[in-house]
From TrEMBL:
<feature type="domain" description="Solute-binding protein family 5">
    <location>
        <begin position="79"/>
        <end position="440"/>
    </location>
</feature>
<dbReference type="GO" id="GO:1904680">
    <property type="term" value="F:peptide transmembrane transporter activity"/>
</dbReference>
<dbReference type="Pfam" id="PF00496">
    <property type="entry name" value="SBP_bac_5"/>
</dbReference>
<dbReference type="InterPro" id="IPR000914">
    <property type="entry name" value="SBP_5_dom"/>
</dbReference>
<keyword id="KW-0732">Signal</keyword>
<dbReference type="GO" id="GO:0030288">
    <property type="term" value="C:outer membrane-bounded periplasmic space"/>
</dbReference>
<keyword id="KW-0813">Transport</keyword>
<dbReference type="InterPro" id="IPR030678">
    <property type="entry name" value="Peptide/Ni-bd"/>
</dbReference>
<comment type="similarity">
    <text>Belongs to the bacterial solute-binding protein 5 family.</text>
</comment>
<dbReference type="InterPro" id="IPR039424">
    <property type="entry name" value="SBP_5"/>
</dbReference>
<dbReference type="GO" id="GO:0015833">
    <property type="term" value="P:peptide transport"/>
</dbReference>
<dbReference type="GO" id="GO:0043190">
    <property type="term" value="C:ATP-binding cassette (ABC) transporter complex"/>
</dbReference>
<protein>
    <submittedName>
        <fullName>ABC transporter substrate-binding protein</fullName>
    </submittedName>
</protein>
């Protein structure tokens, strides 16, 4: 294994002078990699966010700020700066924003123009699925909003005043394609879905040199990148290794530079040993939760949803599954204007059993989770199964392959789903827009439909002042406390293991590696 991992550093013959040196090459080991190269495509897996982040540019990005505990930077979601945009200006009436583009070039050599930006945002609001719902979350809803004024000037006309519109331009979805390259290879498909699933057409800091799904993705630096300081690293090898023990061994021996997705116990052990840097950030707007289907199956009955909340072994899960690398969501008292926050449930088997008996007594059901998160989700699921058995609920556990998980949850037919979701914008109303709102996004796994909740979430989103916002948040927190479409279990810490020679770590809301700022020395 070590010999195989070292092989990419070897250069032969005359190519040796041009090949990236070891200090310019990063080896990352992860559980699984991208199943597509197009984050806007239907069914794209979580790691495809990393492709978007590193290979494409957006109009705006979030400003970096130091991580309070040290170890690198995270982003300030309320502070924006230009990426493809050299500058931008919101109109005096607050109903449009105009962007002046940098002199940037696509990987093809073409100059980035406002027409490319328009085609890209038109695509994002029209292609459907996750991408279109994400755009709608910032009131970016229809192609008519996007105007190419001239080659270097682009305007967005707002359909309403929405505090999330500009921040939503900085997440990984509204990235900019080389539209001419995409159209030329579209085969007649308006949005070139098949071509862009398998090819990069961007202007970002990195290009994809090689992509072997399930094996590795190799990135090389775009030396013409115009949207930031040229990265130090010229080559990134992101290798998919399913075995967490193998990934841990590689990072401990120094054969790998960075590892994502290790089990929390391994991160804790590495942190305690002190030979490897471990950087942890509590995931903003992030929760491990158990989603209970409110439309089909037994959990249509709110009493059974409450029973699950009362029997959940919160403390055992935090220690046995996350090894303390998170915050329990049990035992909340007074609702706060915050997300995540603890629910008013603790482990009370008697109370849970009484609710099951009142709802008709014992039954069987199935609990689903993403096998790509098995190192955390599997022990969590086993503890949940044991706890639910105490109150007469027999649970079958079903592991769904990571590449298929989003397709599975989109069916909205599964009775129980264990999932970690983190909203990219750190607002309570934003989280509920994705997971419990009647727009019924893919992440509303409980298929929860409640006009009263929708009214409160929408009112918070467009609240005219802080007092109104706070009141609406408190009211919708009280409502979901009672209705329990999802049982929050804990807020996890996002950990990454790095050799001490690696600097420049930057945590991004999409939770994928940002290679642009990493250094190696």
């Amino acid at each position: 294994m070590a010999a195989g991992l070292a092989a990419p550093f070897v250069a032969k013959g005359s190519a040796q002078a041009q090949a990236p040196s070891r200090n310019e090459t990063l080896l990352l080991v992860q559980e699984y990699g991208p199943n597509s190269l197009d984050m806007q495509g239907i069914g794209s897996s979580q790691p495809v966010n990393g492709v978007s982040l590193n290979c494409y540019d957006r109009l705006l990005r979030f400003k970096p700020v130091p991580i309070p505990g040290g170890g690198g930077h995270q982003v300030a979601m309320g502070e924006l700066e230009g990426e493809l945009a050299e500058s931008y200006q919101v109109a005096s009436d607050g109903m449009s924003a105009t962007f002046k583009l940098r002199d940037a070039k696509f990987h093809s050599g073409r100059t980035v123009t406002a027409k490319d930006v328009k085609w890209s945002l038109d695509r994002a609001v029209s292609i459907g699925g996750f991408a279109t719902t994400q755009m709608n979350a910032g009131s970016l809803e229809k192609p008519e909003q996007f105007v190419a004024v001239d080659d270097k000037t682009f305007r967005i006309d707002f359909v309403r005043k929405d505090k999330m519109t500009l921040p939503n331009l900085a997440v990984t979805i509204p990235f900019v394609f080389d539209s001419e390259l995409a159209i030329a290879n579209s085969g007649g498909d308006q949005w070139a879905k098949e071509y862009l699933k398998n090819n990069i057409a961007g202007s970002g800091a990195y290009k994809v040199e090689s992509w072997k799904p399930g094996v590795e993705t190799i990135y090389v630096r775009n030396d013409a990148w115009a949207c930031g300081k040229l990265p130090q690293l010229r080559r990134i090898i992101a290798r998919d290794i399913a075995s967490p023990s193998t990934r841990r061994a590689l990072i401990e021996r120094g054969d790998a530079d960075v590892s994502y997705g290790l089990p929390p116990k391994d991160f804790k052990d590495l942190l305690d040993a002190g030979k490897i840097n471990v950087v942890g950030v509590p995931i903003p707007n992030g929760v491990w939760g158990c989603y209970l289907n409110t439309q089909v199956g037994p959990f249509k009955d709110v009493r059974l949803r409450q029973a699950v909340a009362w029997v959940m072994p919160y403390d055992k899960i935090l220690q046995a599954s996350l090894f303390g690398r998170g915050v329990s969501m049990a035992g909340g008292t007074t609702p706060k204007v915050a997300w995540p926050q603890p629910f008013p449930y603790t482990t009370d088997v008697a109370k849970a059993k009484a609710l099951v008996d009142a709802a008709g007594g014992p039954f069987s059901t199935t609990l689903y989770f993403d096998a790509g998160n098995a190192t955390v989700a599997e022990p969590m699921a086993v503890l949940m199964k044991e706890a639910l058995a105490q109150i007469g609920i027999t649970v079958e556990i079903n592991k769904v392959p990571g590449a298929n998980f989003r397709t599975e949850i989109a069916k909205k037919t599964n009775p129980m789903v264990l999932n970690r979701f983190a909203g990219w914008l750190d607002y309570p109303d934003y989280y509920l827009f994705w997971t419990m709102h009647g727009n019924n996004s893919i992440f509303n796994i409980a298929a929860y439909q409640n006009p009263a909740l929708d009214k409160l979430v929408d009112a918070a989103r467009f609240a005219p002042d802080k007092a109104s916002y706070d009141a609406n948040v408190i009211d919708f927190i009280k409502l979901i406390n009672a209705e329990v479409p999802m049982v929050p279990i804990n807020q996890p810490t996002h950990d990454v293991a790095l050799q001490k020679s690696i600097g420049g770590y930057q945590f991004q809301p999409c939770r994928e590696p940002d290679f642009r700022y990493l250094t190696k020395g």
